[in-house]
Every structure is written in C-alpha cells, then in structure tokens.
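debug: dumping io for the single-chain case to check the tokenizer round-trip. Nothing else runs in this session.
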Amino acid sequence: MGRTRERGWVRSLTAPRDVALRVVCFPHSGGSATAFADWAAAVPPDVELVAVQYPGRGDRFVEPPVDDVAAMAGSVAAELLRLPPSGHVLFGHSLGAVVAYETALVLRDVGEEPRRLCASACLPPGRMENPRIHTAPDDEFWATLCDLGGIEPGIADHAELRDLLLPTLRSDLRAHATYRPRSGTKPLSCPVSCYHGVGDPLVDEALLTRWAEVTTGECTLTVRPGGHFHVSREIPELVDHVLGPRP
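debug: decoded output
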C-alpha cells in the first residue's frame, strides 16, 4: 500500500514524491483505506493519493470505532496539517462524504480550505435514507447490508466474521445518521463535485442538488454506472474527473 503512517488516520497509497496536489479519500461505512488501493495506478506522478483509516479496521482493528463525524474529521484534519504543504482534494464515499465535508470545514477555518470537495453516494449533510438502520436486529441489519452489495459473498455467510464486523458497521452508520453540521456553519467557497451511481438504493438523485447549499462555489453532479459502490468501476475515468482541469 505504498507508505504507511503507522497507527494514524492517514495512509499513503502512492510512493513518496514531491507533489503539487494531494487527494484524500474517505471510505464508506465499514470500509478501510484499502478501498482506494486500486486508484493508485490512475494517479499521475505529481499527485499523492492518501486514504483515511478509521479506527476499528485494518491495522487499527483493535481500536474502538468512533461514532462521531466531527471527532473523526478533527483527527484527520490535524494529521493533514502536519504533512508537507500541498493543495488538497477531498473525496468521500457514503459516510466518507460527510466526514470529508466536516474535514473541509475544519481546514477552511484554519485557512487551508481544500481545492475541491467530492461527495460520492451520499445525501447532503444532515440527510440519510433509512437513518435507523443501525438500530435493527443483527439478522435484519446484516441482510440489508448484504443486499446493497457491500459485503463480499465469502464474508456474508461467515457467522464469525459477521460478528466481528457488526459493531464497527453499526458505529459507522450511527455516526452518519446522527451527524448534523454545526449551527451557524458558513458555506465553503471551493467547488463541490457530487457523484451518483445509477440505481443506488440509498441515495435519491433528486436530493443531490442540495449539496449546492454547502458552498458558494460551483456544484456539479456526475452520474456513473455501478450503483452504490460505483467507485470501483471505471476508476481511471473517475480519478481523472476528481482531479479536474490541470496545468
């Protein structure tokens, strides 16, 4: 996975290099930094690709999960600010979109607003389809997640793995469901790019225009094949779009 910053929140997925831009990827509920490992091959040499590692998974599996989006964002922003200076593009998928948004606010408030915020497979902050999903009984909860295609078939039928994963998944979905932007939050000024997978059962495409309310900058919507997990489809095209026009 390229460089690894041990135990912290941020993992480098590309080799060390002098960079003009850093793309920071925030995974979905239950996801880890490795969810974006396949993106590394599509990143040009002057761009660093990093991904967030939430507690409770990967090399942080023994740590208790965090069910507070603002706390997650504060930790991520603190680490990003300690890295060598670079422009940032934040890309968040599902839960990761609201963590990325909150991180963008933290960075903005210290004078380091990202160049772009990318929100994938996620309704605008404070909205969520089926916000009570994390309270469902284990069997119903697991079946719902499997139906979305987010659980690999080999894991879906493995009772012991299910029991290991359920607490982290519940924590992540609780964090998403209970997140509300701080009262009086001022809008960002950077562009916001929204991405929607055709047929995504968790996102009403018609509501995605409300992301425009979080910024005074441009807000665009891109519709892609692949449903809720479209980020694993046509990766070079997606990465190219996320990077936007470049010199």
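debug: round-trip ok. The longest helix spans residues 159-178.
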